[in-house]
Design goal:
This protein is an alpha+beta fold and about 400 residues long. It has two domains: about 1-200, 2-Layer Sandwich (Ribosomal Protein S5, domain 2); about 205-380, Alpha-Beta Plaits. The chain has eleven helices and 13 strands. A six-stranded mixed β-sheet has the order 5-4-6-3-1-13, sandwiched between helices. A four-stranded antiparallel β-sheet has the order 10-11-9-12. A three-stranded antiparallel β-sheet has the order 2-7-8, sandwiched between helices. A hairpin with a 6-residue loop joins strand 10 and strand 11. The termini are close together. The structure holds alpha-D-galactopyranose.
Length: about 400
């Protein structure tokens, strides 16, 4: 792949790139929609991802090229405000990184750069293609301009780019897992304090994850993601007001008062959102424990519970994702659940390696029968986070 990206770069810009890197996608094993609620999450980075090559240019332009789309070179002028040059394309994620680096005074940028990307990570599929791209860009720029930013800085700034330039109120999970991912390990991360994380081994000889992409694309900024964020802010306000408390996150409310808090929320919809968050946080804690004790069967059971809760209480699933989980359940998968933001995207299935072939056949057949189009399926490795090649 390194050779391939170098060749693309040479063809487009007629010179050698100075640096080449890879940034992975991620799956989240448990803890959905918890990172903006102060809960714990359990993501891991995967071998599907985005490759990038970069070099300094002598002009005042940032020239960006993706071999995944036929759009030619997209240009941004470093002397004009980047927020006025948004084009609603993939390249905005890279422009957003420059925007945040300039805003926080990490870079002054007197000269531009040339960058090429290509990847095998499907976009808008819940596998964090946006975080992979943001992180790839900030990682390469950090190296190219010798900014000396730490890995934590990279994750935080990439998140700020997503929040403030792209406009999605996401938490830190995606950017963090893409930067900190480790081969064969999940990351148990406390989203309130990102220095508080530990690696959880996924090493085993019997089970594997199968990713099933419903091929329903969703756009986070215009989807209901920000609406869920607002609903959670409302819950926080109601409970804080009724109890004279000032917790910053829903996951801070003491668990033993769960039923009492529920009785204080009038809206059925908000009660359901609250239930999901509180119970999902417990599931994440238990998942890390089960995986650390090599108890994949118990972990699989709570994968199904989590999906049910995302479907019924948090309402971020859809018919296609539910059908994939249902087929997995009926065909002896150990566990299955949607992963990422939802509203389309992917399901992850945990299954005995010996059962994967049958599962793939069944999903293909039954999904097509119901929806008249095919999902895509990937068996991936749990891979290292963003790194130079
Ligand atoms: C998206 C966001 C994350 C997280 C997940 C849901 O991937 O970027 O911050 O909220 O959705 O768990």
């Amino acid at each position: 792949m390194k050779g391939k990206i170098i060749n693309i770069f040479k063809n487009v810009f007629n010179c050698e790139p100075q640096l080449v890197a890879f940034s992975p996608g991620r799956i989240n094993l448990m803890g959905e929609h918890l990172d903006y609620n102060g809960g714990s999450v359990l993501p891991c980075s995967i071998s599907l991802g985005i490759y990038g090559a970069i070099s300094l240019s002598s002009s005042n332009k940032i020239n960006l090229y993706s071999s995944n789309v036929k759009e030619g070179i997209l240009k941004y002028d470093i002397d004009r405000p980047l927020e006025l040059q948004k084009n609603k394309k993939w390249s905005d994620y890279i422009a957003g990184i420059i925007w945040i680096l300039k805003k926080e005074k990490f870079i002054s940028l007197e000269k531009g750069f040339n960058m090429v990307i290509f990847g095998d990570l499907p976009n808008s599929s819940g596998l964090s293609s946006s975080a992979a791209l943001e992180t790839l860009a900030i990682f390469l720029i950090n190296e190219l301009y010798h900014l000396k930013l730490s890995k934590i800085d990279l994750a935080i700034l990439a998140k700020k780019c997503e929040n403030d330039f792209i406009g999605v109120k996401c938490g830190i999970m995606d950017q963090f897992s893409v930067v900190f991912g480790k081969s064969n390990k999940a990351i148990y991360l406390n989203s309130q304090n990102i220095n508080d994380f530990r690696y959880v081994s996924l090493e085993n000889n019997d089970y594997s994850f199968l990713i099933v992409n419903s091929n329903l694309k969703r756009n986070l900024a215009s989807s209901k993601y920000n609406q869920r964020y607002q609903e959670c802010q409302e819950i926080l306000k109601i409970i804080n007001e009724k109890n004279g408390s000032d917790y910053l996150y829903i996951c801070n409310f003491p668990l033993e008062n769960k039923n009492y808090y529920l009785s204080q929320i009038d809206s059925e919809l908000l009660k359901n959102r609250f239930k999901h968050i509180i119970e999902e946080n417990e599931r994440t804690k238990n998942s890390a424990y089960y995986l650390e004790n090599n108890d994949f069967l118990s972990f699989g059971e709570i994968m199904y519970e989590s999906h049910e809760s995302l479907k019924k209480f948090y309402e971020v699933s859809c018919a296609e994702l539910d059908e994939i989980v249902e087929i997995a359940y009926r065909n002896d998968a150990i566990g299955a659940r949607m992963t990422g933001a939802g509203f389309g995207g992917c399901v992850i299935i945990l299954a005995k390696i010996s059962n994967i072939k049958k599962l793939k056949e069944k999903i293909k057949e039954l999904f097509f029968k119901k929806f008249n189009f095919y999902p895509s399926m990937y068996i991936v490795n749990i891979a290292d986070g963003t790194h130079l090649l």
